[in-house]
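Following up on my earlier message about adenosine-5'-diphosphate. Here are the inputs again, as you asked, copied directly from the submission form:
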Amino acid sequence: MIQNLLQTPIEYLKGVGPNRAEVLKKELNIRSYRDLINFFPNRYIDKTGFYKINQLQQNTSEVQIVGKIVHMKMVEQKRGKRLVADFVDDTGRMELIWFRGHKWIKENLKINTPYVIFGKTSYYNGLFSMPHPEMELVSDYKKNLRTAMQPVYPSTEMLQKKGITNRVIMKLMQEVLQQTGLKFSESLSPALLSEIKLISKAEALFNIHFPKNQELLAKAQFRLKFEELFFIQLQLLRKNMLHKQKIKGFNFEQIGEHFNDFYQNHLPFELTNAQKRVIKEIRSDMGSGAQMNRLLQGDVGSGKTIVALMSMLIALDNNFQACLMAPTEILSIQHYNGLKELCEEIDISIYLLTGSTKTSKRREIHEKLESGEIDILIGTHALLEDKVKFKNLGLAVIDEQHRFGVAQRARLWKKNHIPPHVLVMTATPIPRTLAMSLYGDLDISVIDELPPGRKPIKTVHRFDSNRLKVFAFIREEINKGRQVYVVYPLIQESEKMDYKDLMDGYESIAREFPDFQISIVHGQMKPADKDYEMDRFVRGETQIMVATTVIEVGVNVPNASMMIIESAERFGLSQLHQLRGRVGRGAEQSFCILMTGHKLSNDSKTRLETMTATNDGFEIAEVDLKLRGPGDLMGTQQSGVLNLKIADIVKDNSILQLARNYASEILKEDPNLSRDENQVIKNAYARLVKNKTIWNYIS
Ligand code: ADP
Ligand code: MG
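Thanks, got it. Here's what our run produced:
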């Protein structure tokens, strides 16, 4: 059977053998016939068309031309000789050049005889040339069978070194396709195929390697991309469905005293409509009887904290505990202080647990958690330790999700027999479609509205040479009573150097502003010192905060209205946006100044221009996605999406939508894929899961 044949170890393929098999495994992770067939070209050399010499352009890459050599000569160079041939067609003249193999060429190439040549052209002094062209007599060209579009496969240095060239891979591919024939099992149902007009699996696989023409190549690519995205979406949606069916959640039926009292008497401001909508979504999730698994996206400053608090109050009203986990100590402390203040007049007990909580306090917390005396526990990763046991945890809120891995999310669950509801909050705006494919198993809420009265932050780019003017501006703002952040990059590989930059910067600011108080915070400080310095700034005792990116996440000082970002070209876009979100939190006009040197890469320029042009986190995320691709954007935790074999989550957005719609439609009608017409899909799905070709990147 074809399935067995596809499992055949790659060393048994004619032309492979144990040595090459070893290299293929190591370099390309190709172990079986199936793996080889699923190793797709990343581009094609199009030999379907011919160029005339007068059609050549400086940026044309590989071209095919028919013409004749009219003359050949040797040219002496400092570094050896080259052989140059004048090549003409009826539109013009160009040169063919050889640096090696002169003797053979002179003896074998025919003058004044029509050739098909193929290769890359270069342009110099008004003349096109082609070094080391592939050449074939027109008379032979007409005789030979060929595929017009030649596949070019991804390669590595090691593959080249071991002689596994593109030509070799092509040969192997021909061999494996011949052996397996065109007998691949179809993986999509006939209904789908005809409705979306997809070509068959076998045809697609053949044409992805050896396309007969552009049109068939496009069809093959579309079919395979659709299939890949379809099965991923199918998996995610099924998971979400099963989750809702099977994973019972606590049913928070009542909205009680805590929530109502807070809502009616202690809300410090009117909620935005977006906040109200999101709270409603969360309320209905937690009252549905299934476990909530919701991602809350909201730009920096959109007011996620109050949403978290009110959700936790619902848990309390149903006699459950809640916790709020944040990625850094500073942020946990801020949440703790902030929530304490908000809840001052309602009778609940809130505790803080971090890595630096003293042992005695820690013990007290452990006991009070188990006895149920603690209502809300706030903290860092320390919450995940085994000793931390809740009496009845009903809701876990995780702030700034992108810093926590999926595994950590899951660990919170283990704290109960019935898992608590989970609300994950992130300020990294993820474009919706990307979020869909990354977190297809989560429901998504979005706060897409900032609290009223916020003025957009004015952002400018200044060169280091204008520093004096920037200093003058800092002085002006501080004299108006404002506070200022000065941020330095700290990137791990060069930590020592960055640390020196930071200290130098601190000193020059101290010299420039002897009359102001200055705080400094960086990652190498002891937590207690950090807190002390932060605290002075929060209380307004210091006017300037010199810091590394430790202040990136969540820090809230409304009176700070200005941020200087040093070496701004070294930060990524989403990081710049996060940093900038620290200002613009009060009523005053805020400013962000991006400082750089004069030498800037194109990407850096795009980043700086984007930052000065917009405050919209989603817009910024889209640009970031285009610049960096999804893998970098999300960090390595979610790099599963990078394992896509053919689809590109960014570029193939519309196919993704289509695939998701179809997957969802099919599951709605036939959740277990038990109907006859869905057997093909069910079998393919089972095979994919078994062969682990859909990547289990979500839990
Ligand atoms: P983030 O979403 O970045 O976590 P926060 O929850 O820290 O944002 O809120 C940012 C600031 O906006 C806080 O000072 C908060 O008190 C304030 N805020 C939140 N919601 C509103 C609102 N509806 N009206 C006015 N201010 C609000
Ligand atoms: Mg926050």
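One observation from looking it over: Residues 2 and 184 are 7 Å apart (CA to CA). Hope that helps, and feel free to reply on this thread.
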